[in-house]
Fold this sequence. Notes:
four-stranded antiparallel β-sheet; alpha/beta; transmembrane; five-stranded parallel β-sheet; membrane; ion transport; 27 helices
Amino acid sequence: MVEQITAMLGLLGVLSLFCQWLGWKLRLPAILPLLLCGLLLGPGLNILNPDALFGDLLFPIISLGVAVILFEGALTLNFKEIKDHGRMVTHLVTIGTLITWTCIAVATHFLMGFAWEIAMLFGALVVVTGPTVIIPMLRTVKPKSELARILRWEGIVIDPIGALLAVLVFEYIAVAADPTSHVLLALGYMLGVGLGFGTMTGFIVGVIIKRHLLPHYLKNAGVLTIMLGVFVGSNLLQEESGLLTVTVMGVVLANMRGVDIADIIEFKETLTVLLISALFILLAARLDSQAMLNLGWEGLALLAVVMLIARPLSVWTCGIGTTLRRNDKWFLSWVAPRGIVAAAVSSLFAIKLETLGVAGANLIVPLVFLIIIGTVVVQSLTAGPWAKYLGVSAGSSQGLLIFGASLFSRELAKVLKSKNVTVTLADNNWDNIRLARMDNLPVYFGNPTSEHASNFLDLTGIGRLLVMSPYRQLNPLVSFHYQDLLGFKKVYGLNNNDGNSARHQLSEVYLERLCLFGESVSYAKLASLMSKGALIKSTSITDNFTFTDFMTRYGECAIPLIYLQAGKVNIITGASDSLVSGIELISLIPIEAQLLAKELDEALVTQAAEKLP
């Protein structure tokens, strides 16, 4: 039996990784291959029976996994960020959540015959969308930038809000189902433990991080261990209060001033990917296929209410007073796929409610999975054509992500921004990011290949990557990561390879893309020129002032960088680039070229003066 459990755990790990890879490769939410894998192993082939395999350990495994997922989600709930992302996002995660919750709860009560308490719990469970399903869909659909930002931030912010709402409803049901307790008193005690203990422990952990009371190598493991201990301790103080406690603890940490939780979020996200993947396969394997079929037309009618009534009503109500057009609202009304958080939390609550003998608890999981399957499959297949029909597709992405926020990168970004080109600077160096923010440039602080970046680095409108950093070890990783994401020919790097050390020889595939601004241009050369007073200048190349005239004026030391033509951004990669009339040329003008241009201007003035009578 021990060998069987060990083998199955190993198989779960391998299959989880494969499903995540398959979702990435096919540009689909990973939830789809994970779901199919679980259904195939469980109801399909009867290879995996989680209840029989893990026995009494199954509930603790799911319980601890959900606690980590909720804590990680709560760490992203920064109240300031909600305000920073516009009125529509704020409305969707507040007013929209209440509208969606109410609509689904009412429909569930009348269509499925659930008691009001269970109907309200189900409504709370399926209000969440989540970045794990939204972001892969946006990469495929490519709506215009404003709509992509709204959907992306709605998915990130609503995850912990929806989970917190579901936890609160569950706490009420759990208390009300206990015949020995006074409902209001017991609920008040449970909320007191959850909110009070969560706030206190969140503050204490924040102080520990802020004052560096844990060494750096223990910070992530320490916070995880403390969180699990708090979860168990809260449940000992008051049964079923642990999930609320860790959610509140995460929210407190996310909103404490001076507490750097970026590393913790990245670590938790890596752990959560593994937990979510394994949990979802286990949960899908537990599904009773007959229970899914028994949902009948009522289940399909409820799915229709979720997609065709609750979501449009929420979007159109929240859109009042915003600048969104009618077609924008119709697109947002269609895209709201449900995610893995709903599946994980619903499965945990269903097990708990079944032990309490609550009627209808056995139908929660099949119904949640029906909503997940319906929204993800239908919307993944139709969102692209729907966006094109409405005219809200972004088309070809002309924006640039620049890795490395040095002086050169910042000056180039300012010129590009003045030409209405979308540009974002990413860097690990806080001083560079601070200076870029002072220039009012969009930035991302951190490693652009991290899991945190996949959720928080806004790539809306970004079609190419320029690697212009001094980090020789990180540059290849960033390049390969975005070659997979954007395409091989959409990634460019500076030729920083000195070729002196055999240890640092790089692959031909990578070297082929080190052609940014020409093979002779390196980071060191650009930094040196900028320190000596070089300027980045935009020049119109016309029939009256050709590229030959440009080179005559500034000489061979001028470095053409990028040119804009008919709304398209073109990266210059060497002398072979043909620069014709009708373009806006952005170039680096060294101090020598500036002096040459000044001498020419003075000579022209002198000639003009000599011709005067």
